[in-house]
């Protein structure tokens, strides 16, 4: 099996991290900002130095292309994103882009030609920190989102995506979409599973199903000092019981089921007022669509029972639904064969976070390679990875892509 | 037993409610505002018409005095406050002031002279809606709070109490405090107990003990999609269990024990982030100091156990402590004898809310008379009372005060 140049890749990662470097060791390159532009230009320079050609589509997705021997073949694509959270880490997204570049550099070193062309994609606004929603570059590329809708999105200062694309010079003309033979994205796990299991490579089988619910609990606001307990309709005591029922639900659907209550707000809250109205969010996740449908029904049944018992009114509205996204069997097999051949410690894993690859999977055969991040920490300036893991993950990417793109003898 | 003129009192209540009347039937007279000044001036005019003399102390407390036959006797005081919440009701405070005035008017009608002088007090800033803390007029009068401290308090617009007193003409010169024979305050219950028990008169035995705690729960923020349930340290799931334990605590100390969690805030909350840090408040109440001390210890023990079990860090800090305030046995007996003599439906009750009488009780013999408010509702424009209850409560006040002040034969 081929091996990449781990030191070169690490040096590139560290050089990219200097652009928008933050005081506490992270990076800040908000989508289509001057720093994001600078990061893209560094990548573009490296790509040109590696003999690749560049193109940009109307939503600013940047592609570096290495030709194949077959002029009719669709490209095998790698990539991820270079934009970051405001207090982002050095590896989220950047790793997938520079791993793709390292694969090309390595093939150049080895003078290996592939039958199918290779492309390294830099997707626009994966993070969603400046422009909402997240991942709209890959969404527009794959036809999941309208170009016009995305161009009209404005940031907190009122600057539209269209304006930011023109300001940075990234309003390109390459046609959106087009034939893609396959897409392979390397990424840090952004969770603790690989580290906890002492594995280096996660062979990602797909993205899990997600349901976001909005829950509203209505009781009766009253004075904390003058209202006897039996006469109260306390929305928060009710919500506390509901939230524990939601925690228990995860146990009932273990280990695949995940439940989170991330936001809770009490209306007109005051220290000596019994909460009369509050809202909280529910985030449900599971590998299978059928299971998440059951979880959704269970949430509704259990919360309704608690509300009835406590004489509260509960309203549950769906906020967002994302079905499970299984990855392509052949692409996953290519990753599995690469890691088997390399003999690295590995496991199958489901992607818990959103990635451009989740969009690509609805458009073309797709797979991902995960490597651990220290302590599972991401979206944080302290985000860290081990250089050895960076190297092994890129070895897997190299061999999987090469197998899929076809080495010309 | 003597009876007051219910129609005259009701007409006065309705006339006062016109000052600062709100669109939805309530009153807005923020402390030392122009509307509060207008309310005080109406009361002052009525007091002068009833033959009383006026005085104002340096914190703006306004006193209307009816002389007694004994020039050496300290006054028997009645009263409450005329300021309101921003969306306040027509009876909270106003009832106690105008009931006191009605007692004097009634004695005038009956040409009854008392041995001790009578005074009707209008305490400054009972509500605390404009200036913090609440009830500082009675606090300064009784020496619980420094005059200088109170004068320096500023509202949200930066206007100090001293400036507001001068602007309204209520920076008076009557010495603070002085001898008070007894203090009787009539007030709406601001809770549902009397209505729920179909009683008209609450013979208030004192104020309950209050403890306010600040609880901070620290876990580990993490991604809702990538973190397996067993690896989570979810501050909100922990807090939900703690909050239910606090609810159970009230049951363990029933019926006197009350527990409320009124505020809860998750730091950097987001729908798909496991809460890593949050804070909530605890309001504990009980009639007895020894019991509230036990409740406090139980909160600490139960929350610490939950935190340990969940690998969370919990910190509990006292925010404010107010010991139980038993009222004067003789004054309470005077109220009890009046209501017994009148034969009105009554019960003993503990004051759940704060009142000027709670401050006065540390300064002079004190008692209160409660009447029901519809649905227990207060601090609300929809606050309402039944005219018949207003009348009966004032009958009780009249006979209790007359007994205490001594009728000159």
Topology order of chain A in helix (H) and strand (E) letters:
HHEEEHEHHHEHEEEHEEEEHEEHEHEH
Oligomer: homodimer
CATH domain class of the largest domain in chain A: Alpha Beta
Number of domains of chain A: 2
Looking at the structure, the CATH topology of the largest domain in chain A is Aminopeptidase
Low-confidence stretches of chain A: none
Which overall shape of chain A is indicated by the principal axes computed on the Cα atoms? elongated
Mean pLDDT of chain A: 97
Q: Into which percentage range does the β-strand content of chain A fall?
A: 15-25%
Using a beta-carbon cutoff below 8 angstroms, give the protein chain pair with the largest interface and the number of residues from each chain.
A-B, 59 and 59 residues
Strand count, sense and barrel status of the largest sheet of chain A are:
9 strands, mixed
The N- to C-terminal Cα distance of chain A equals 16 Å
The CATH H-level homologous superfamily of the largest domain in chain A: Zn peptidases
The assigned CATH architecture of the largest domain in chain A is 3-Layer(aba) Sandwich
The tally of beta strands of chain A, per DSSP, is 16
- Which percent bin holds the helix content of chain A? 25-40%
Which class best fits the helix and strand makeup of chain A?
A: alpha+beta
- The number of distinct helices of chain A, counting runs of at least 4 residues, comes to 12
